[in-house]
Give the backbone structure.
Amino acid sequence: MLEEARCGHCGAPLETTPDSVVAVCRFCGAPSFLMGNPAEVLAVPTLPGPEVARRAVERTRSDPDLQKRLSAVNFATSPDLHYLPFYFVEGTLNADYKAAVLVIYTERSRSGTQIMRRTVRVSGRVSLTDAVGVLARRAPWGLSADELAKHFLSSKPKPKPLSHLAAQGEGRFLAAEITPERAKAKAVKILISRLLKRVEEDAAAKAKEAAGLPNARTVVQDKAVSYEVARLEASRLTYLPLWVMTYLYDGSYYHYYLAGWDGRVVVAEEPVFAEHRRASLLSAVSAGGLGGMGLALAPQDFFMGAAVLIGGAVLSYTAAGNMLKSRRVEK
Amino acid sequence: MMRCPFCGADYQAPPGRRFYVCPYCGTVVTEGKTYQSVYIFKPRTDKTAAFRAALNLKPMGSPDDLPQATPTAAELHFFPLYLYHISFQPLPELEADAAALAMSKPPVELPSGYRFPTRWKTPFKPSLEKIGVFHQPDLDYKSAFQALKEVAEEAQAYAYVFRTKVSVSWRFEGIAYFPVWALEYEYRGKRYAAAVDATDGTVIQMEYPLTKRGRAQAAAFAATTVSGSAALGTAAGLLWDAWLGMLGGLMASTGAAWRLIKFAAARRGRYKAEEKL
């Protein structure tokens, strides 16, 4: 599968497969364009490294947990820059659906409060226009890439042709490994799940309205959805700058992940402190109490009671896990 | 018994397999011949950095002086991965490369859903200098491919949008070695194991000594969770039945208590990597 391609900068052999879009030389770090026109590839310019480092320090100073412990925080190294390749896929999807929705409400009568249920059949049509950032790599990067793409979509920085940027020679460009078609396939999967969520919301709202019970709880029991994709477009390949800044807390390494264009921390890894463990303990206790309420409720309404009991047990179990963790992630 | 054609070492391997890997030099033999399509993900984290990553991790209940523990052993393990090129008809533009673990029981348990890279591997050339332990692939490449059904599902979801059905076909592309550090260290006369991804220095899993303080804290958490849940359950149950409320509080907190008590009663703590950042 190895093709003979060489780095345009230093002449070292490049490892590529037929669908590589951009390859980065392992020796000198220069990007080489193997497919298409370099001017077709976009990149978002980044702030300089020292400025990004300053933002990371600033964030630590304003972090409610870390600012009390500033003396134990050390920024060990200067940040590392990675350029991650993305396709931004925009799509419009329409769905026609039929659903059976369980509407749960309470009714007061002479004998006391009673929990009532009713099944309402609804149908409708919903439409979704949304954008998804798809990392153009086969190997997963992690949470920071997802958050970086979300931040790009909400802050809308202006990308420039990559050739403007590559000349700076800073940072590691990760090879783009998937085609826009494959990115669309990935995006469709995400868009469909968002569409289905919207279908559920719409069905629930319609059912409440039909039953005349705006404050009832609803459960979508059964739905038949047929959907179509009206439009699906992938952007040009766009490189986004992600800075990774390492800091030491009490001798242990943690990382900040920052968006290069505005220095925003998209993901922060932080130590778990005593106050977080206390908060987890409190939620475990509340969840346990909720479970207790569930069992007490069971003689009145068996299913509801059992659901609350099980829900409380699951929440409490999860909170116990959080008490034992040593690191946590802030978005 | 197999004899490696490159380094001459003899090694045990059950008959009837497609690929045989020499555990000493990594040479792959198939049908009596040396197999050529072998790649490697180069280890980028050395032994010292791997130990530093593990001993400085500070998981819950670990002693403050763990970074001063004595490293006793470090061995690089190469896990065999099978490489595939997957294509879809009639949508050739969806073609993809993917890699799957070729072992049914890896010596180090990897986080669930771990997806291996397929790129930035380099061709592997065996050498007589020992760099690590190479593991035998014990799955055949057809059953290992099952782990990649996600790739096919994605393509099918996409094809469905265009009201087409895709057929999945794949081509076996070779073997790649993925490096993992198996570490061992000593703390106050006892030995503990850790595993570190040698491509990026992530601690995959680690055993560590639990301090009395850490265990006592977990036990106190367990006691507080159970008694607090029972008290709160009683209060919430007052509307209907306070006794049932208390019983429910006890029941709902059993799982949490079990998790915390298991931690408090253990001799060793166990850390496992979760979400990748």
Summary: The first helix of chain A runs from residue 49 to 62.
